[in-house]
Fold:
Amino acid sequence: MSDLKKWIVTANGIANDIARKEALEADRDGKWVHKTMTALKETKLTGLVVPKENGGLGGGLYALARISEELGKAYSSAGLCFGMHCVGAAVIAAKATDYQKKKYLQPIAEGEHITSLALSEPGTGAHFYFPQTSLLPTSQDDFIVNGDKTFITNGGHADSYVVSTLGASEDATADQFSCIILEANQPGIIWGDPWNGLGMRGNSSCPAHLNDIHISGNQILGEKGDQLWYIFNVVAPYFLMSMAGTYLGIAEAALQEAKNVLAKRHYMHSGTGLAQVSILQHRLGTLWSNVERTRRLIYNAAQLGDNGEPEAITHILAAKAEVGHCVVDVVNEAMTLAGGIGYRENGLLGMYLRDARAAHVMSPTTDLLYTWLGRVLLDQPILSD
Structure:
């Protein structure tokens, strides 16, 4: 059995034995998926994208999409929390110093450390790549961080956070955008209200105020000014593939739920099974086709990215945009096929629908992705406005 198949089997076991059970409580109470993330740490799947030379599994975009899909089938928040950890780990790994390899990557690979991203801010909306959080140098090797971050997945539960910053000067420009890593126990991280979303309720995406946090140069990732490089060379592909996999998992779960309802239910007055009704057969076939063509787009995009193909970016942008439409359409139609039983309060399809809607509003939003895709196709700068 290949390494990837072993990882998928392990993820499937965690998804079915732990995440699926944890989903009900997490969705009801808005609790972080502690049991699922603990299991992922214990199996060292949290080291999925950490390079092998640092003790990790050395997986790439395709592995991330596949594992996220398995988790997403059971509970979308599990896929999101795992995915955001992996994106953070990939950012740390991209230009890690010897200190950062020992301090962060090795513990991540050993299942002892969870990280995440803190990029979004209250005033930037979908344009998360233009941070206003300030990074003020106080000496050659000491800095002070101030600002506000929102939608920090794994917020308050991770051991570290990859944070985007801007040089603290009135005339600061894009070449002063930097990525840093904050440790959870550093004084000055003030967490806001717990996450209470319509969907994706188990991911603890809460805000934080960063108040005069002192960091050393060892906590700066890459060179000062590298933030935009990280965003488009690491964050974008890993985030888009992990989220595409997660939403694909939701779509697949909704498809299976609709199939199960049609296979089991019969009309009492005639004895005819719903599985024998032509229009329902047709509509289920349409749903399967939607999910399957989206799956092939996602898998192909991830493999192109892993192979370093120049056209990978167009496929990666399209994959996340297309799965956003796919998952909402499939869950909506699955609920229609299931009828009243699918519309009951706290039912699976209701949870899937609430979770699926996050696909369009989670930055980069679907509209932004299509805009970027068009710019790439027309050889225009992605950030041209």
Observations:
- Residues 62 and 303 are 6 Å apart (CA to CA).
